[in-house]
Amino acid sequence: MQTMESQQMVKRLPKRILKNKLINGLFLVATIFSLSILVVLLARIIMQGYSWLSLDFIQNFASRRPEEAGVKAAIIGTLWMMAVVAPVSCILGVGTAIYLEEYARKNKLTRFIQMNISNLAGVPSVVFGLLGLTIFVRALALGNSVLAAGLTMSLLILPVIIVAAQEAVRSVPKELKEASYGMGATKWQTILRVVLPVAIPGILTGSILALSRAIGETAPLVVIGIPTFVAFLPGSILDSFSALPMQIYNWTSRPQEEFHALAAAGIIVLLVLLLLMNSIAVWIRNHFQKR
Amino acid sequence: MKTAEQKTDIQQIITNKQQKRFIYKSEKFVPIFLFLMATVSILTTVGIVLTLVFETFTFFSEVSFVEFLTEKKWYPFSDTEASYGIQSLIIGSLKITLIAAVTAIPIGLAVAIYLSEYASNQIRKVVKPLLEVLAGIPTIVYGFFALTFVTPLLRSMFPSMEMFNAVSPGIVVGIMIIPMIVSLSEDALSSVPQAVRDGALGLGATKWEMTWRVVFPAALSGILASIVLAVSRAIGETMIVTIAGGSTPSNDWSLTNSLQTMTSYIVQVSTGDAGFGTTIYYSIYAVGFTLFIFTLIMNIMAYMISKRFREEY
């Protein structure tokens, strides 16, 4: 290797510094660009939809006439679905996480379960729709009911909840557990009374984020045949229903401008719902982190 | 009095013993119960694979496997000359994925490098959650955005573009996967130890030289894995392409025409009237199976890349 003359080095220096600055600027532009997409997206949707937002819009059923259309059935339907998804996915997710973190031996089976979970997280949601269609809708003959959709969504978000719960359980300090064992508590008592209470903020945060994903998912619902045009409320979990994203999808796929505005209004409702859930998750995280 | 006291004592002993037995039993029972919960995730995978395999098998008893692979046209809705050539749908999916990758990889990497190497802590604290918001937006919203904003914008610039085209959903799918690339790549970059950076800077490298020649190569495995995962997500993306891509399977690589992807075909059949048990009904499983294999290969690839090239510090 040839050593450079110091003169040459000094000569090249401004160029290298300039290059560094240029690239810094370029990356800053890329960052601003991706954030501005968020701004444009939100601004566009609010501009398109806000004039259609009203109490009537929330309280009316779907209608062929845009002025009378509302999202009541969709909102209530979404809530019904979440009433299935939340308990099923949380119990299964937390149970699996506790098993993997506290009970499972480090053997092939455990590694297989772990790999399987991360693989499931990468399966497209539309494929989960096919699973739901075959198993829940057809084989178990649940039809396009709240239960069928709820179970499909639960399986879809299960990997996310498991991973979040695992991290929460893993981060419980070892000393706490050892103290509990030292007091003569059994393993399950320790988990129930020491590990879970400490891990619960982390579990909740992850679960709420996963649940908010389930609220926005559309593809599996389309595939299992959830209707978009519904003018009634479900009376039990075996009834048919519609969900907010399905209602938005229906309005989006119509050519008329008015329906696009309705879709935008529906999206605002959906985003407000998601924002609400996310702020709860953030609040939980901040509230418990302080201690 | 005495006998009453004794009685309660004995009762106490009995209940204590019962309690202990219960605790002992639950200690045995709980792990089994939790294990059963853990098997649900395996059963899900088994369920997915079995459903896809069985129904795909039925499909191939009606349509030949060779036709599926070699036929050029995907035209299932014709009564007389239905043809099932998966190529058109794969090309549709690849078109979207390529455009998404071209959009997302440069921007995503630039943001990731900016956040991990250039930005101050305060900026990072603001930008990261905002990008998480972008990641949390439902795809139906992105689809609506593609159809009502990006498509008209593109059509005002390129009048030859059709209402449904490949570019608009492709770009928006790219936007959707940017946060994924950013967050995973940023993790990979920031896990490179500070000492490595200090060494490079101490030798007189500028920040860019340090990033490009030292930090970036050290984090390369994580970065590549993030890209592969994001691309896999793009292939499987459904609502954006359904809403903004149209439903015309085509075998050419034109970007301005309507197209159909594997996912949007599944949605089209699901919303249509294809009755249970028809060939069209079974075809969605064959398409779903193909899609599943594509994403499975990519996910395994991402796993292998991050495992094989992981740098140990």
From TrEMBL, chain A:
<feature type="transmembrane region" description="Helical">
    <location>
        <begin position="259"/>
        <end position="284"/>
    </location>
</feature>
<dbReference type="GO" id="GO:0005886">
    <property type="term" value="C:plasma membrane"/>
</dbReference>
<protein>
    <recommendedName>
        <fullName>Phosphate transport system permease protein PstA</fullName>
    </recommendedName>
</protein>
<keyword id="KW-0813">Transport</keyword>
<keyword id="KW-1003">Cell membrane</keyword>
<feature type="transmembrane region" description="Helical">
    <location>
        <begin position="218"/>
        <end position="238"/>
    </location>
</feature>
<dbReference type="InterPro" id="IPR035906">
    <property type="entry name" value="MetI-like_sf"/>
</dbReference>
<dbReference type="InterPro" id="IPR000515">
    <property type="entry name" value="MetI-like"/>
</dbReference>
<dbReference type="InterPro" id="IPR005672">
    <property type="entry name" value="Phosphate_PstA"/>
</dbReference>
<feature type="transmembrane region" description="Helical">
    <location>
        <begin position="120"/>
        <end position="141"/>
    </location>
</feature>
<feature type="domain" description="ABC transmembrane type-1">
    <location>
        <begin position="75"/>
        <end position="281"/>
    </location>
</feature>
<dbReference type="GO" id="GO:0035435">
    <property type="term" value="P:phosphate ion transmembrane transport"/>
</dbReference>
<comment type="similarity">
    <text>Belongs to the binding-protein-dependent transport system permease family. CysTW subfamily.</text>
</comment>
<keyword id="KW-0472">Membrane</keyword>
<keyword id="KW-0812">Transmembrane</keyword>
<feature type="transmembrane region" description="Helical">
    <location>
        <begin position="73"/>
        <end position="100"/>
    </location>
</feature>
<feature type="transmembrane region" description="Helical">
    <location>
        <begin position="21"/>
        <end position="47"/>
    </location>
</feature>
<dbReference type="Pfam" id="PF00528">
    <property type="entry name" value="BPD_transp_1"/>
</dbReference>
<feature type="transmembrane region" description="Helical">
    <location>
        <begin position="190"/>
        <end position="212"/>
    </location>
</feature>
<keyword id="KW-1133">Transmembrane helix</keyword>
<dbReference type="GO" id="GO:0005315">
    <property type="term" value="F:phosphate transmembrane transporter activity"/>
</dbReference>
UniProtKB/TrEMBL annotation, chain B:
<dbReference type="GO" id="GO:0006817">
    <property type="term" value="P:phosphate ion transport"/>
</dbReference>
<protein>
    <recommendedName>
        <fullName>Phosphate transport system permease protein</fullName>
    </recommendedName>
</protein>
<feature type="transmembrane region" description="Helical">
    <location>
        <begin position="96"/>
        <end position="118"/>
    </location>
</feature>
<keyword id="KW-0472">Membrane</keyword>
<feature type="transmembrane region" description="Helical">
    <location>
        <begin position="130"/>
        <end position="154"/>
    </location>
</feature>
<keyword id="KW-0812">Transmembrane</keyword>
<keyword id="KW-0592">Phosphate transport</keyword>
<keyword id="KW-0813">Transport</keyword>
<feature type="transmembrane region" description="Helical">
    <location>
        <begin position="280"/>
        <end position="305"/>
    </location>
</feature>
<feature type="domain" description="ABC transmembrane type-1">
    <location>
        <begin position="90"/>
        <end position="302"/>
    </location>
</feature>
<dbReference type="InterPro" id="IPR035906">
    <property type="entry name" value="MetI-like_sf"/>
</dbReference>
<feature type="transmembrane region" description="Helical">
    <location>
        <begin position="29"/>
        <end position="54"/>
    </location>
</feature>
<dbReference type="GO" id="GO:0005315">
    <property type="term" value="F:phosphate transmembrane transporter activity"/>
</dbReference>
<feature type="transmembrane region" description="Helical">
    <location>
        <begin position="166"/>
        <end position="184"/>
    </location>
</feature>
<dbReference type="Pfam" id="PF00528">
    <property type="entry name" value="BPD_transp_1"/>
</dbReference>
<dbReference type="GO" id="GO:0005886">
    <property type="term" value="C:plasma membrane"/>
</dbReference>
<dbReference type="InterPro" id="IPR000515">
    <property type="entry name" value="MetI-like"/>
</dbReference>
<keyword id="KW-1133">Transmembrane helix</keyword>
<keyword id="KW-1003">Cell membrane</keyword>
<feature type="transmembrane region" description="Helical">
    <location>
        <begin position="214"/>
        <end position="235"/>
    </location>
</feature>
<comment type="function">
    <text>Part of the binding-protein-dependent transport system for phosphate; probably responsible for the translocation of the substrate across the membrane.</text>
</comment>
<dbReference type="InterPro" id="IPR011864">
    <property type="entry name" value="Phosphate_PstC"/>
</dbReference>
